[in-house]
Amino acid sequence: MILGLLGLRCIRWHEKKNRFVSPTNLDFYWENPVVWAKCSRGCHTIDGELIIRRDCSCGIYATLQKQEMFDYMGDSLAICLLVEALGSHNNSWAHETGFTAAGVQVIKLVDITKFTRSQIKNEGPEKMEFLVSWQQHVMQKALEVFKLKVTDIIPYNLALEMMKIQWQKVVMESWPLED
Ligand SMILES: [Zn+2]
Ligand 1 center to residue 169 CA distance, Å? Predict the structure, then answer.
């Protein structure tokens, strides 16, 4: 049962490290279905849970906006996860366009391959096909790493519906975006 907020999260496959990493921090690994924030800037821990400060950058961010997710994507080695916010009371919070949480649970893998072509510009058709097939290959890796089934690969529109329902349930306000 999903209890927390849902958001989109871009992660990258790092070929040399043989791991999924955060696009903005290549040393932050995504290796399990549940991922917790780590802090080297002084946030403390209570009962084993990192208490993320609002003025610190260690919390895990997920967005409600497809375009913001693509801004992190950069290239087709990136894929899109639907993640649920974890953490005790007050240790995750909603923004206008997403959330920050102490941890996240990977719920689904969002198939964004149909958008990839429009995001990667200035590539010829052959290179484009190569990139999209590589992205599909990386999605298969994600199924293994995050212990998902093939049926957990969902189209973006379904992810959007799930995010909207959960937003209204948890934040108790209407969906903050237009699309
Ligand atoms: Zn911190």
Answer: 28
